[in-house]
Design brief:
430 residues, alpha/beta, Rossmann fold, pyruvate-formate lyase- activating enzyme, OB fold (Dihydrolipoamide Acetyltransferase, E2P), 3 domains, five-stranded parallel β-sheet, five-stranded mixed β-barrel, binds S-adenosyl-L-homocysteine, binds iron/sulfur cluster, binds FE3-S4 cluster
């Protein structure tokens, strides 16, 4: 009977992409996935450290794994991802039942848990093992790590410095994906426009998008996460000019006050951020723009927060991801700044951002009623096909449509989180 693996993932798209790659490696060795942790021979917990709450989720999962290992000593357990730093001593002490701690993308020690099979991969697990696509959309990491060192953020400590994948390697991976039914890829990087500066000839994200646009079976290209300083005019012009690249930006601002932005070492002022948004909207008036906000950063006053709230009212983002500041051991903010905003104030500010966001995104959704939008059908849920507009809005369709097809949809109804509509035309029967 084939060995079974159980893979549990939290965190960002990059972590999900890593898990998919690990799964592809397991499948290549003949393992089968299971949804039931009790039936697994190998358990892998892929962790995130971005906030305490993400770590707590992994800890509670590891509590369950501890019980299982006591019942079944042959069970192999790996913990991978951003909770695993350079030193694993503390984690090892706390969780002696874990066989392997692996840093992000350190797949080899996990593959070695598969009995007698590691050599079968011929040392080529990365980069030639591609994730098996599960539908018409896929994540493709293009630049790993981050060089920015925002004071609050653990990511550069856990994922290392920016490292771009060679363009031909990415093109090969996307060609493989499209041959297996993928029609839309999301290019991933913590600061995705940093792509290429460390490669020979210094291609940029726009050059990569141009290469990928030539792949016939690929319909759509998305990209995440944008960083205002790296987002050049040249890249924006490529996004605007290439029909396969979606006008959809995830452009975290984090705060609306210059004092907070400077303390965070975000590398831009509010005015510079506003300038970037203006540039995006001038080139692409229908662009969808989402953002991230941290409330309760050390020293954030009521007046600072009022500037964040005003910025949200002013810029009217399609979606806002908001989080309360969580001190991350090892970061600059953790070392130098007391976590001085009371929990109740953080909660009130978080709630205020959520209120603003719900109202504005509903209004923006309502403004789309009556328009025609191009949708890529991504899947079917409860019998209803769903997909996203070019700008990134989620739409449920009131008729049958084939997964992977591009359809024109007349938007009939707007809710707070999604839209509903009827297909009026199948643009492409891919
Ligand atoms: N590279 C992206 C974000 C990566 S982390 C950027 O530059 O914005 C994803 C989001 O988690 C961040 O945008 C931020 O809003 C949030 N985040 C990161 N560290 C945090 C912390 N210590 N406390 C609360 N939220 C945090
Ligand atoms: Fe973290 Fe800042 Fe890098 Fe984003 S840009 S991953 S917030 S250090
Ligand atoms: Fe979390 Fe690591 Fe992503 S800390 S958000 S999984 S890069």
């Amino acid at each position: 009977m084939p060995q079974k693996y159980y893979l549990w993932t939290v965190g960002c798209q990059m972590n999900k992409a890593d898990s998919e790659k690990l799964a592809a490696g397991f499948e290549r060795l003949g393992l089968k996935s299971t949804e039931h942790i009790e039936r697994a021979d190998i358990v892998v917990i892929n962790t995130c450290s971005v906030r305490q709450r993400s770590e707590d989720r992994a800890y509670s999962k590891l509590g369950r794994v501890r019980e299982l290992k006591a019942e079944k000593p042959a069970l192999k357990v790996a913990v991978m991802g951003c909770m695993v730093g350079l030193k694993t001593g503390d984690l090892e002490k706390r969780f002696p039942q874990v066989d392997v701690f692996a840093r992000p993308q350190q797949f080899e020690p996990i593959m070695e848990l598969v009995e007698g099979k590691a050599e079968d991969l011929g040392g080529e697990f990365w980069p030639s093992t591609y994730a098996v696509p599960e539908g018409p959309t896929a994540y493709v990491p293009v630049v790993h790590g981050c060089n920015k060192f925002c004071t609050y953020c653990i990511v550069p400590y856990r994922r290392g410095r920016e490292k771009s994948r060679p363009m031909d390697e990415i093109v090969r991976e996307v060609a493989y994906l499209t041959a297996h039914g993928v029609r839309e890829v999301t290019l991933l990087g913590q600061t995705v426009e940093a792509y290429g500066h460390d490669l020979p000839g210094e291609p940029d994200l726009g050059d990569l998008m141009r290469e990928l646009s030539a792949l016939e079976r690929l319909h759509r290209i998305r990209f995440l996460t944008s960083y205002p300083r790296d987002m050049t005019r040249r890249i924006l012009e490529a996004v605007a000019a290439l029909p396969k690249v979606m006008e959809c930006f995830s452009l975290p601002v984090q705060a609306g006050s210059d004092a907070v932005l400077e303390s965070m070492r975000r590398g831009y002022t509010k005015a510079e951020y506003l300038g970037k948004i203006a540039e995006v909207r001038q080139l692409m008036p229908a662009a969808g723009i989402t953002t991230d906000i941290i409330v309760g950063y050390p020293g954030e006053t009521d007046a600072d927060f009022a500037e964040t709230a005003a910025l949200l009212e002013d810029l009217r983002f399609d979606k806002v991801h908001v989080a309360a500041y969580s001190p991350r051991p090892g970061t600059i903010a953790w070392r130098k700044m007391p976590d001085d905003v009371p929990a109740a104030v953080k909660a009130a500010r978080l709630h205020r951002v959520e209120e603003i966001e719900a109202r504005i995104s509903h209004e923006l959704n309502e403004a789309l009623v009556g328009t025609t939008q191009e949708i890529l059908v991504e899947g079917i849920k409860n019998g209803q096909p769903f997909g996203r507009t070019r700008a990134g809005h989620l739409v449920h369709l009131d008729a049958t449509a084939r997964v992977g097809a591009l359809v024109d949809v007349r938007i009939a109804h707007a809710g707070a989180f999604s839209l509903r509509g009827d297909p009026i035309d199948a643009l492409t029967l891919a």
